[in-house]
Specification:
Chain lengths: ~350, ~450
């Protein structure tokens, strides 16, 4: 009963905050002169300070893209590193304008936290890593394997579901931290190692001989990661959504950071609408018509950002996979700008 | 070598043949009780149990030390530009990857503090060292001024230096009443400045009417000074650096420093409050101390970081670092209060009665008789609390502040340095740095204790 009261009270408090926050986020950001972006406290490839303390990563570049669209300056972002526990309250209380922090979009988060989730900027999912010398090509061949994983996470539950659904036998070996898990797998304690696929690539680099290990193609869970903002401010939501779609559209049309100035002269109507040389699409979302041009000029298209931070241009070397464009066999699909 | 008694034996004993005329030659002590062997026998092998323990300790040392030396020194990688330097070669793991620490050292010290402004952090380290040296070196000149420097000038200077904001801005707030920019702030600070002048005058024995004039004068002069300083500060033109960009060892030292400096006076006041005979003061002191001691530091930090913003109106955001600073300072002062109270209770009642008998008032008694003795007996515990506080600053990483340990944590997961021994190296480096600071504090405390306890050892 007491617990119920508590949750009612807390829910009411959060509801009030969410209501109060429906003020125009865009105006607040413009008056402040800087976008406040909730970021990871450090995750390779997605949000991490480099040696000089400058933030880099896929999620970080998304924040920079939003800032570029608003201010024509990708540097006008203040990154607020948030722990997994802090992230939603920081957004609800208005400490950050947008949360781009490897947050999985789930129904309960979308419906009960007073938040909205945006387009998925990275489709993650749980995968497996094994030693190449096992000569396994698919997770279906893992019958009887011992699997190392971190305890108390959804990873462990997904693992159980996957093996039960496929009627495979397995033995799970759990550890408290991801560091220990990696060490144990490296020491040969188990045959396979499982965590989110993006994590597998960065953990692989810490192994004694990274080249002796491979990531299997199967993805056994859905982890759509994307930005989140406060419920009720639809204009702000439009800016977040279309920032991502503009980056996708640019990749689809072959508009890159390098050639965007040339493309301004393009006669292709799609490119013209994207770059604002035709139509008033930017003004419709409260920005200027060259909003997408600014994004691509300062940050780049989705493919460029992906390859630079997590793909072939980075040390992680994550394959595009499901994050490829829809016309290249992936899931990244932007509605047309018209 | 004999030390002969050269003088003739006293008269009357000379005739007795069995009394020696000269002192016997002093023999060297037996080999078994002097020199290295003697030391070994008394310290390490004095009993069968001791012998067993010594052998056991030696065994453990032989078992561990070579591995340590191998990992930290002989097998270590000292130079390199990225992870390639520290990956396994031919399946053999290298030792500690010091190249990683070398590459990221600036990040560990300054965090994300802008590179072109790092001299300001260096100046902060220098000013801090100067203050500590001034206070701790016994023969330093004008140590009373040193105290003022340490408690007033240094915090303001550090705030101004690191944040780039005018540290004396509050002095000019009353001027806002004239311009009408912020009436509430103006009124509050006008009242405070007036009160400061008034109270100083009153404590010098000035009558209330004239003291009010002094208060008015203080208000006008300080506000004018504040305005003048604002111009000067604008002329210096330090670029503001948001606290979100502070990090590394710099933040650890700022937080620990503020905690250490604030917790002792607050702790003393709370301890006195708890032993006060005034029920309201006593009640609130007990309430505060027991409430804070009843929750872990991490809860206080979560409260300050996660809950507080929910209760505040939308347009008010309190700086994240400031929230954590206040939380830590209050937390440490509750513990300090209990430490000081132990010292107060250790003093015999005669000290209090003696002080009262010579006619000292409450504050005089505390300042001149009770606190000097109470603090002396509690030095080990005070320093113990300080060391705990210094290490507790590492909890800041949970609320997203990039302290020294968090800086290492973030650097070690960077793919640029993703190699098998990088994590261990980072943690070893953290251990060494924390040890240097904590051992330094402990050594200073031991020396102070020895100096102050000369009277007790006769």
């Amino acid at each position: 009963m007491k617990k119920l009261m508590m949750s009612v009270a807390l829910g009411a408090a959060l509801g009030m905050v969410a209501g109060a926050a429906s003020a125009q986020t865009l105006n607040q950001v413009k008056t402040r002169g800087v976008l406040q972006c909730g970021s990871n406290t450090g995750l390779a490839g997605f949000g991490q300070p480099d040696a000089q303390g400058n933030w880099t990563g896929l999620d970080v570049d998304f924040c920079r893209a939003v800032a570029a669209a608003i201010f024509n300056d990708a540097a006008k972002v203040k990154f607020v590193p948030l722990s997994a526990k802090d992230r939603f309250t920081a957004l609800q209380s208005g400490e950050v304008d947008v949360l781009v922090r490897n947050t999985t979009w789930t129904m309960s988060r979308d419906t009960s936290l007073g938040l909205e989730f945006g387009p998925v900027n990275y489709y993650d999912g749980q995968g497996f890593m094994v030693r190449k010398k096992l000569k396994i090509a698919s997770a279906m061949e893992l019958s009887g394997a011992s699997v190392c994983t971190q305890q108390g996470t959804t990873t462990e539950l997904n693992l159980a579901d996957f093996f039960r659904a496929n009627k495979l036998k397995y033995e799970v070996v759990t550890f408290a931290t991801s560091d220990e898990t990696t060490k144990a797998y490296d020491a040969g304690r188990c045959d396979a190692f499982t965590t989110d696929a993006s994590g597998l690539y960065s953990e692989r680099l810490r192994l004694t001989n990274p080249d002796d290990h491979m990531v299997l193609p199967e993805i056994i869970s859905k982890e759509p990661l994307g930005p989140a903002w406060r419920h009720g401010d639809n204009q702000w939501g439009d800016i977040i959504k279309w920032t991502h779609y503009a980056m996708l559209t640019a990749e689809e049309l072959g508009v890159t950071k390098a050639n965007v100035d040339e493309q301004l002269k393009s006669t292709n109507p799609d490119v013209k609408r994207l770059l604002g040389t035709e139509g008033k699409f930017g003004e419709a979302i409260g920005l200027t018509n060259d909003w997408a041009y600014r994004i691509i000029k300062h940050v780049g298209n989705y493919g460029e950002v992906f390859e630079k931070n997590v793909g072939q241009g980075s040390r992680l070397k994550i394959a595009r996979g499901v994050n490829a464009l829809w016309n290249k066999g992936g899931l990244q699909y932007a509605p047309p700008i018209r | 070598m004999s030390t002969e008694m050269s003088s003739a034996p006293p008269s009357g004993t000379a005739s007795r043949a069995y009394v020696r005329a000269a002192a016997a030659q002093v023999l060297p002590p037996p080999v078994a009780t002097s020199g290295l062997i003697g030391w070994l026998r008394t310290n390490l092998f004095s009993s069968p149990g001791n012998t067993l323990l010594t052998l056991l300790a030696l065994l453990i040392a032989f078992w561990i030390i070579p591995g340590f030396v191998r990992f930290l020194i002989t097998d270590a990688v000292w130079s390199g530009a990225d992870r390639e330097a520290c990956v396994a070669k031919g399946g053999v793991l290298p030792g500690a990857c010091w190249a990683f620490v070398k590459d990221r050292l600036a990040y560990f010290i300054y965090g994300a503090y802008p590179v072109e402004s790092r001299w300001r952090a260096d100046l902060f380290f220098l000013l801090g060292a100067l203050g500590i040296g001034w206070l701790l070196w016994l023969n330093a000149p004008r140590r009373d001024l040193g105290l003022v420097y340490f408690l007033v000038v240094l915090p303001l200077a550090v705030y101004g230096l690191l944040s780039g904001r005018n540290p004396l801005a509050f002095l000019a707030y009353p001027y806002d009443l004239v311009t009408g920019r912020s009436v509430i702030l103006g009124l509050v600070f006008a009242a405070l400045l007036f009160l400061a002048g008034f109270l100083v005058a009153r404590s010098e024995g000035v009558r209330a009417g004239r003291a009010a004039l002094f208060g008015l004068a203080a208000l006008v002069i300080l506000t004018a000074a504040g305005l003048a300083f604002e111009r000067l500060w604008g002329a210096i033109g330090l670029a503001p650096v948001d606290t979100a960009r502070w990090g590394g060892l710099m933040v650890t030292l700022v937080v620990a420093g503020v905690g250490i400096v604030a917790s002792l006076p607050l702790g003393i006041l709370l301890a006195l409050g708890r032993r006060s005979k005034l029920p309201v003061i006593k009640f609130f002191s007990v309430l505060f101390i027991e409430f804070v001691r009843g929750v872990p530091l991490i809860t206080v930090l979560f409260m300050a970081n996660t809950m507080l913003p929910l209760f505040l109106p939308d347009d008010i955001t309190v700086d994240k670092l400031l929230r954590a600073l206040v939380g830590i300072a209050l937390f440490a002062s509750a513990y300090m209060a209990e430490v000081v109270r132990a010292g107060l209770q250790a003093l015999p009642k005669g000290q209090y009665e003696g002080a009262m008998a010579v006619g000292l008032g409450y504050w005089q008694m505390m300042r001149l008789i009770i606190l000097p003795q109470a603090l002396k007996v509690t030095i080990p515990n005070i320093v113990n609390t300080y060391i705990g506080l210094f290490k507790d600053t590492s909890l800041l990483l949970i609320v997203g502040i990039f302290d020294f340990l968090k800086a290492i944590e973030t650097a070690r997961i960077d793919p640029q340095w993703a190699a098998p021994t990088v994590s261990a190296t980072g943690y070893a480096f953290a251990a060494i740095v924390y040890f240097i600071f904590c051992y330094g504090m402990a050594s200073y405390a031991r020396a102070t204790e020895r100096r102050l306890s000369k009277a007790d050892k006769r």
